[in-house]
Amino acid sequence: MNCKMKYYLVAFSLLVPGAGSGVLAAQESEDRPAPVSLIRVIANPERFDGHRLRVIGVLGYGGGLDQAVCLYVSETDARNGGMLNCISVDQSFDKSDKRLGKYVILNATFHYLSGHGLEALSFNHISGLKVWSSLGEK
User: Fold this and answer.
1) Can you give the CATH number for the domain in which 121 is found?
2) pLDDT of 65-117, one tens digit each?
3) Domain limits at 84?
4) What is the DSSP code string of 100-131?
5) Residue 29 has pLDDT above 70, yes or no
6) Model's pTM, two decimal places?
7) Of 14, 27, 106, 110, which has the fewest Cβ atoms less than 10 A away?
8) How many structural domains are present in the chain?
9) How far is 39 from 20, CA to CA, in rounded Å?
10) Three-state secondary structure call for residue 15
11) Nearest residue to 49 via CA among 112, 123, 4
Protein backbone atom coordinates (compact mmCIF):
# COMPACT_ATOMS: atom_id res chain seq x y z
CA MET A 1 0.00 0.00 0.00
CA ASN A 2 1.55 3.33 -1.02
CA CYS A 3 1.88 6.35 1.27
CA LYS A 4 -0.92 8.31 -0.38
CA MET A 5 -3.34 5.39 0.00
CA LYS A 6 -2.46 5.04 3.70
CA TYR A 7 -3.08 8.76 4.18
CA TYR A 8 -6.56 8.46 2.67
CA LEU A 9 -7.26 5.34 4.74
CA VAL A 10 -6.39 7.20 7.95
CA ALA A 11 -8.46 10.23 6.90
CA PHE A 12 -11.44 7.98 6.07
CA SER A 13 -11.21 6.20 9.42
CA LEU A 14 -11.30 9.56 11.20
CA LEU A 15 -14.31 10.88 9.29
CA VAL A 16 -16.53 7.80 9.29
CA PRO A 17 -17.60 6.58 12.76
CA GLY A 18 -16.78 2.93 13.26
CA ALA A 19 -14.46 2.76 10.25
CA GLY A 20 -11.42 2.90 12.53
CA SER A 21 -12.31 -0.39 14.20
CA GLY A 22 -12.17 -2.24 10.88
CA VAL A 23 -8.85 -0.62 10.04
CA LEU A 24 -7.50 -1.60 13.48
CA ALA A 25 -8.51 -5.24 13.06
CA ALA A 26 -7.20 -5.48 9.49
CA GLN A 27 -3.87 -3.85 10.32
CA GLU A 28 -3.23 -5.92 13.44
CA SER A 29 -3.97 -9.18 11.70
CA GLU A 30 -0.91 -8.47 9.56
CA ASP A 31 1.28 -7.53 12.59
CA ARG A 32 1.45 -3.96 11.38
CA PRO A 33 0.67 -0.95 13.54
CA ALA A 34 -2.83 0.40 12.96
CA PRO A 35 -2.91 4.04 11.83
CA VAL A 36 -5.06 6.03 14.25
CA SER A 37 -5.37 9.65 15.34
CA LEU A 38 -3.95 10.70 18.69
CA ILE A 39 -7.29 12.29 19.56
CA ARG A 40 -9.10 8.99 19.02
CA VAL A 41 -6.62 7.20 21.30
CA ILE A 42 -7.02 9.82 24.06
CA ALA A 43 -10.83 9.73 23.75
CA ASN A 44 -11.05 5.91 23.83
CA PRO A 45 -7.96 4.62 25.65
CA GLU A 46 -9.54 1.33 26.74
CA ARG A 47 -10.22 0.45 23.10
CA PHE A 48 -6.53 0.69 22.13
CA ASP A 49 -4.85 -0.68 25.27
CA GLY A 50 -2.12 -3.15 24.33
CA HIS A 51 -2.43 -2.46 20.59
CA ARG A 52 0.40 -1.57 18.24
CA LEU A 53 -0.43 1.83 16.72
CA ARG A 54 0.96 4.30 14.18
CA VAL A 55 0.31 7.89 15.29
CA ILE A 56 1.30 11.46 14.45
CA GLY A 57 1.81 14.21 17.00
CA VAL A 58 4.21 16.83 18.30
CA LEU A 59 7.07 15.44 20.38
CA GLY A 60 7.81 17.63 23.40
CA TYR A 61 8.58 17.76 27.09
CA GLY A 62 5.67 17.38 29.47
CA GLY A 63 4.81 19.85 32.18
CA GLY A 64 5.58 17.56 35.12
CA LEU A 65 8.57 17.70 37.43
CA ASP A 66 10.25 14.80 35.67
CA GLN A 67 10.05 16.58 32.29
CA ALA A 68 9.01 13.36 30.56
CA VAL A 69 8.61 13.44 26.80
CA CYS A 70 5.04 13.34 25.48
CA LEU A 71 3.33 13.13 22.13
CA TYR A 72 0.96 16.11 21.85
CA VAL A 73 -2.04 16.52 19.57
CA SER A 74 -0.88 19.95 18.33
CA GLU A 75 1.96 22.47 18.45
CA THR A 76 -0.19 24.70 20.67
CA ASP A 77 -0.68 21.89 23.18
CA ALA A 78 3.07 21.17 23.20
CA ARG A 79 4.00 24.83 23.61
CA ASN A 80 1.53 25.30 26.50
CA GLY A 81 2.10 21.90 28.12
CA GLY A 82 -1.52 20.82 27.48
CA MET A 83 -1.40 17.61 29.48
CA LEU A 84 -4.99 16.71 28.57
CA ASN A 85 -3.93 16.36 24.94
CA CYS A 86 -0.80 14.26 25.21
CA ILE A 87 0.42 10.73 25.80
CA SER A 88 3.68 9.93 27.58
CA VAL A 89 6.46 8.42 25.44
CA ASP A 90 8.56 5.88 27.35
CA GLN A 91 11.89 6.61 25.69
CA SER A 92 14.84 8.83 26.60
CA PHE A 93 15.66 11.83 24.44
CA ASP A 94 18.66 14.12 24.43
CA LYS A 95 17.64 17.80 24.74
CA SER A 96 19.37 18.48 21.42
CA ASP A 97 17.24 15.89 19.56
CA LYS A 98 16.01 17.66 16.41
CA ARG A 99 12.67 15.81 16.52
CA LEU A 100 11.63 17.60 19.74
CA GLY A 101 9.08 20.33 19.02
CA LYS A 102 8.24 18.86 15.60
CA TYR A 103 5.42 16.71 14.28
CA VAL A 104 6.61 13.12 14.24
CA ILE A 105 5.19 9.82 13.12
CA LEU A 106 5.91 6.70 15.13
CA ASN A 107 4.91 3.12 15.72
CA ALA A 108 4.36 2.17 19.35
CA THR A 109 2.48 -0.08 21.73
CA PHE A 110 -0.16 1.87 23.63
CA HIS A 111 -0.91 1.24 27.31
CA TYR A 112 -3.73 2.49 29.49
CA LEU A 113 -3.98 1.97 33.25
CA SER A 114 -7.73 2.13 33.91
CA GLY A 115 -8.98 4.44 36.62
CA HIS A 116 -5.90 6.67 36.75
CA GLY A 117 -6.95 9.41 34.29
CA LEU A 118 -4.87 10.71 31.41
CA GLU A 119 -1.61 10.36 33.33
CA ALA A 120 -2.00 6.62 32.82
CA LEU A 121 -1.63 6.83 29.01
CA SER A 122 1.72 5.82 27.54
CA PHE A 123 3.53 4.58 24.46
CA ASN A 124 6.42 2.12 24.62
CA HIS A 125 8.34 -0.13 22.24
CA ILE A 126 8.78 2.88 19.96
CA SER A 127 9.96 2.25 16.40
CA GLY A 128 10.08 4.17 13.14
CA LEU A 129 10.22 7.53 14.94
CA LYS A 130 10.81 10.23 12.33
CA VAL A 131 9.87 13.81 11.58
CA TRP A 132 6.59 13.84 9.68
CA SER A 133 6.09 15.96 6.61
CA SER A 134 2.65 16.34 5.08
CA LEU A 135 1.97 15.15 1.54
CA GLY A 136 2.00 18.74 0.26
CA GLU A 137 5.54 19.44 1.49
CA LYS A 138 8.63 18.55 -0.49
Assistant:
1) 2.40.50
2) 666 899 999 999 998 877 788 999 999 888 899 999 999 999 999 999 876 55
3) 3-131
4) TTSEEEEEEEEEE-TTSGGGGEEEEEEEEEEE
5) no
6) 0.72
7) 14
8) 1
9) 12
10) helix
11) 112
